[in-house]
Design goal:
Blueprint: H1 7-10, H2 18-21, E1 27-28, H3 56-66, E2 73-76, H4 78-90, E3 97-100, H5 107-114, E4 118-121, H6 132-138, E5 142-148, H7 160-170, E6 175-179, E7 201-206, E8 219-223, H8 225-232, H9 242-251, H10 254-279, E9 285-286, E10 293-297, H11 301-310, E11 313-314, E12 316-317, E13 323-327, H12 331-345
Parallel strand pairs: 1-11, 3-4, 3-5, 5-6, 6-7
Antiparallel strand pairs: 2-8, 7-8, 9-10, 10-13, 12-13
Helix pairs in contact: 3-9, 4-5, 10-12
């Protein structure tokens, strides 16, 4: 059957999510998930009927939270679907390109490859910022530029001035897509205020991280009305299951938002605990992080990673040489991880 598949798909290396990589243990700090398992009530009414394409209560609730108008919001099955929708909406297969800046989230590349859209890469600078001169050289033929801030896996924020320069450079030619999956941990760094000035800006959001709803698969695109209307032309007829709407609206209620903000403060405190503890160890470099994870460089990262894995502490290998990405869990998980690393490096 493989020969019946498109050649692009035959040659495709799939994105290796945390679940695909597997592992056995009781400390899971490899997928940037929240350790909080909040309770919700689902009434199960009307499951015999299809859901709305864009449920009005959910759109209104997220628009209020994000500080935009409802007509600037599209909800989807996670931010991953938004990536695909943008590529399908704006890129001609075999003609157009996307551009992204590794090291960064792997699904930009895979989604483009899946749809037969060319990929251009401009690696981040040594301090993991946008290489604006090189992007300028590569921008011809590009319809979408994907940037991630806080960036995964490095954890840093991109310079706001560079994002604005990128928006100016691409005006009338391409969309700049700012992936803000982790912005709830540093809301002051959001680019949402730039939507008023730049019609070619689209912002990706998710409820998987700070809202502790990774299993819900609920994401959002924030953009000007014209972009949203174009994306609605290609989205599936019923992308949002009824229980997803019910749970997401509860999470976006006054009580839900207060709980999320409290939990974010707790995770930021645990991140600081991990960063301080790891920084005191010999041969260890901890990079500043603004999401719910830290990128850490070790003298022998592979040996340490394997020891952790074999002892039920599941972290994430990084594409950056010598580095491991550590999600921030609850205090017990952080303490157990830090203690084990201390023992291994002693």
């Amino acid at each position: 059957m493989e020969k019946l598949a498109r050649k692009d798909v035959q040659a495709l290396t799939p994105y290796l999510s945390a679940r695909r990589l597997g592992g056995q243990g009781d400390v899971w700090l490899n997928a940037n998930e929240s350790p909080f398992n909040n309770e919700y009530v689902v009434n199960g009414n009307s499951l015999n009927r299809y859901s709305e394409c864009q449920p009005e209560p959910l759109i209104r609730a997220y628009a209020e939270y994000a500080g935009v108008r409802p007509d600037q919001v599209l909800t989807s099955r996670g931010a991953d679907e938004s990536i695909e929708l943008l590529i399908r909406t704006f890129c001609e297969a075999g003609e157009d390109s996307i551009l992204f800046c590794p090291p960064t989230y792997g699904m930009y590349s895979i989604s483009a490859e899946t749809f037969g859209v060319a990929r251009k890469t401009v690696p981040l600078t040594e301090d993991w910022q946008l290489n604006m001169p090189e992007i300028t050289k590569q921008i011809d033929g590009v319809k979408l530029v994907f940037v991630c801030s806080p960036n995964n896996p490095t954890g840093n924020l991109l310079n706001r001035g560079d994002i604005e320069a990128l928006l100016e450079m691409t005006a009338g030619k391409a969309l700049v897509v700012v992936d803000e999956a982790y912005i709830d941990f540093c809301p002051e760094a959001s680019t949402v205020d730039l939507l008023v000035r730049y019609p070619n800006l689209a912002i990706l959001r998710t409820m998987s991280k700070a809202f502790a709803l990774a299993g819900l698969r609920c994401g959002f695109t924030l953009a000007n009305t014209q972009v949203i209307q174009l994306m609605l032309k290609v989205i599936a007829p019923y992308p949002v299951p009824v229980p997803v709407t019910e749970i997401a609206c509860q999470a976006l209620s006054e009580v839900g938002l207060a709980r999320m903000k409290y939990q974010v403060l707790d995770l930021c405190a645990n991140r600081a605990y991990l960063q301080a503890g790891l920084s005191m160890l010999p041969g260890v470099q901890v990079f500043d992080g603004y999401g719910n994870y830290l990128l850490v460089k070790f003298e022998d990262a592979e040996l340490l990673f394997t020891a952790l894995w074999d002892n039920g502490i599941i972290l994430r290998r990084s594409p950056i040489e010598g580095c491991i990405r550590i999600s921030v869990g609850n205090r017990e998980e952080c303490e157990k991880t830090l203690t084990f690393i201390r023992q291994q490096l002693a």
